[in-house]
Amino acid sequence: MSFYMDAYASYLKSERNLSTNTLESYLCDIRQYIDFLKSKKISDVRHSSNAIVLSYLLHLEKADMAPATIHRKLSSLRSYYHYLLLQRLIHDNPTSDLNPPKSKRKIPSALTLDEARLLLNQPRSKDFKSLRDKAMLELLYATGIRVSELISLNLENVNTEVGWLRCGQASRERVIPISDSVLQFLKKYLKNARNTLVHDRNERAFFVNTHGKRMTRQGFWKIIKKYKESAQIDKEITPHTLRHSFAVHLMDNGVDIRSIQEMLGHSDISTTQVYNQIQSEMKKNTCTKPRP
To answer: Which of 7, 97, 121, 204 is least enclosed by beta carbons within 10 angstroms?
Structure first.
């Protein structure tokens, strides 16, 4: 079968200089597409066509995949076919005239203050996993950093003596203060958990899994799910929910939108303004709830 995946993966690594997570995301999208081609008895990507790609997009829509996800998968396909064109393995790019479905901007959900406290208080044990989980949840909620930024933190990015962390890419790096209450959880984790978990003295990841390696997004997702269930919170909670909750609770305390934009690292103020909608929606829901 000719799909040139090994060559394409090497191209992405050497020419595109992608992060490990982004690289795997690209390749995962293409593998799913190749599985679709195989289901249609197509064993060579050179036999694909505009109609086949369109059929794939319709297949994703029928599977109730979110428009934003379909948009990303089409972007991955365009990159893949662009590579095949560069290598002269195909003569036409079947994705060139295709448009993804329009994304409906979904208002993300946030936790109430009581729900946030309940979730953060779930890791109660003194074992190393609970100490790590508590530190991760508290830091995420107190700083509003992205989950990708949380798991990308290295030891040198966090100063537990002065109380700050550095995150983001070089062009948009942010230095964020850490409160004393959160610092105590970070110090407990470093002293009583990380040293137990890490076996390789050269490991620089701040937060690690039970194998002593860097915590992954999937690993943190499982942690969130575990504590959501133990807290019995009847609301969808994703790793990004604490970031949304951080922003909304700042607004509730009167922090101006520009300051929140800077803290979150948004390049466009319109991205931050969605929290006005979340705040209004939460207040409306609170007002319409029947009294006990």
So the answer is: 97
